Amino acid sequence: QQQVKQSPQSLIVQKGGISIINCAYENTAFDYFPWYQQFPGKGPALLIAIRPDVSEKKEGRFTISFNKSAKQFSLHIMDSQPGDSATYFCAAYSGAGSYQLTFGKGTKLSVIP
Amino acid sequence: NAGVTQTPKFRILKIGQSMTLQCAQDMNHNYMYWYRQDPGMGLKLIYYSVGAGITDKGEVPNGYNVSRSTTEDFPLRLELAAPSQTSVYFCASNVEGGNQPQHFGDGTRLSIL
Q1: What is the rounded average pLDDT for all residues in chain A?
Q2: Do A12 and A18 contact (CB within 8 A), yes or no?
């Protein structure tokens, strides 16, 4: 079954702390793993993405860690800021006969001053 | 550059009414998508299109119809609206499929009473 399980559902982090959101998948055919960020009243926007041939990708304060053997990947937000408060979705894509992204259920992050 | 434009932003329908949600993109993207987003449930794909004249069902197509007569436009039609279709609807587009960034509109919030 093409599922992506995301946790936690909500997360409260103090300013300057590290936010960690985890995702797990079953389908070993997935070969592209993006994270989307969504602010209230707006559509999701691509934040960062990784392919399974690398174990980590960093862009500024945002890092994806990928564990292929465990079929898990996570988003780390370093030095979290109030402006990072948003809902984050992990997703997965398999190029094998499908054009669909499978999304996790989302994590609502609140960064408090 | 407008990106993906969705209209209307809000709409209230009565049970049994019909309506069309509009989506237009000005990026010359071949691929377009319709999602619905329900609280705590992530994004579910309703329909997608890989080019003008070509559409296909996603995960939750029942109660909806689409057409794609031009590259730019991808309207979503609700026939006989039901309370279960109360949701936020997002249109997205990208260049060539799931492993490319999807560009989302800001959504249509639809309530059916």
Answers
A1: 93
A2: no
Give the Cα separation of B48 and B34 in Å (integer).
6
Are A45 and A60 within 8 A, CB to CB? no
Tokens 């060539």 locate to: B96
* Token representation of residue A74: 């996570």
Q: Do B42 and A105 touch (CB under 8 A)?
A: yes
User: If we measure between CA atoms, which residue out of A62, A60, A7 comes closest to residue A34?
Assistant: A62
- The single-letter code of the amino acid at A111 is V
| A92, B60, B66, B78, B90 from B63: Cα distances, Å | 26, 9, 11, 6, 16
Q: Which residues partner with B11 through β-bridges?
A: B110
Q: Which of A89, A100, A107 is the best substitution to test chain B (most B C-beta atoms within 10 A)?
A: A100
Whether residue B48 and residue A44 make contact (CB cut-off 8 A), yes or no, is: no
Residue contact A106–B40, C-beta within 8 A: yes
The average pLDDT across B94-102 equals 83
Name which of B43, B90, B98 is nearest A93 (Cβ-Cβ): B98
CB atoms within 10 A of CB B104: 24
The answer to whether the CB atoms of B58 and A32 lie below 8 A apart is no
- Summarize the confidence of residues A6-13 as an average pLDDT: 97
